[in-house]
Amino acid sequence: MYDRILVPTDGTPGSERAVRTGLDLAGKYDATVYAVSVLDRGPLGRDGSRDRRKADAEEALSAAESEAADADVPIRTELLEGKVTDAVLSYIDENDIDLVVMGTHGRQGFSRVVVGSVSERIVREADVPVLTVSLGTDSVRVTSTEAARDIARDALAAREYESIEVEPGAYDERSAYVVQAVADGTRYNVHVEKATGQAHLVSLGDA
Q: Distance between CA atoms of 60 and 30, rounded to whole angstroms?
């Protein structure tokens, strides 16, 4: 039924579960898994965040390769660049993908590889079936300002802003971190829930 199964991954629990699901389906249908991670083309930034995101993406792809080897399933991996939605949709067309498996939680930007506006657009516009995989009981817990800043950046990237500047540090409140950022000239407070990793964006107007 399926020959080429695409799994976007960023190495977080939701996408790791999607990788395992994709590998399981590939084993049943004698298919090949195509695992991709998407690196946006945004600026490097003062904190070297783009380099860190690239390293995370490469690590996620390596983990997928290791899981595929353990499952004895053929896999092809590729690091893509560009906006997540456009990159994934183009990859589907260019590689004759016939099923997409996506997690429902990830780093919020790729959580929208995942859940929210990006996944909704992929489900709506892809010409192939899209299977979404829930995180299940594996909760995400944010325990540092650095992790909160990464989630905030990805939440803004999910809205496809091109210029994103996340300010150093974060306000440590009882149930959430509050990260301040500027995206395409608009200032935001991003509330990152400690218990779930969910990000809530509050626009503060022009920067």
A: 23
| H/E run at residue 13 | helix 13-29
The total of other beta-carbon atoms located within 10 Å of residue 102's CB is: 27
- Cα–Cα distance, 175 to 195 (Å, whole number): 7
DSSP-assigned letter for residue 197: -
How far is it, in rounded angstroms, from Cα 194 to Cα 151?
11
Percent of the chain that is helix, strand, coil (3-state, to 5): 40, 30, 35
Amino acid at 79: L
Q: Diameter of the chain by CA atoms?
A: 53
Distance of CA 117 to CAs 76, 82, 85, 113, 156, Å?
A: 26, 16, 9, 9, 11
Question: Phi/psi of residue 89, each to 5°?
Answer: -65, -40
pLDDT per residue over 127-144, tens digit each? 998 887 765 544 557 888
- Model's pTM, two decimal places? 0.62
pLDDT tens digit sequence for 149-192: 988 988 888 888 889 999 998 999 878 899 999 999 999 999 88
* Residue 64 neighbours by CB distance under 10 Å: 27
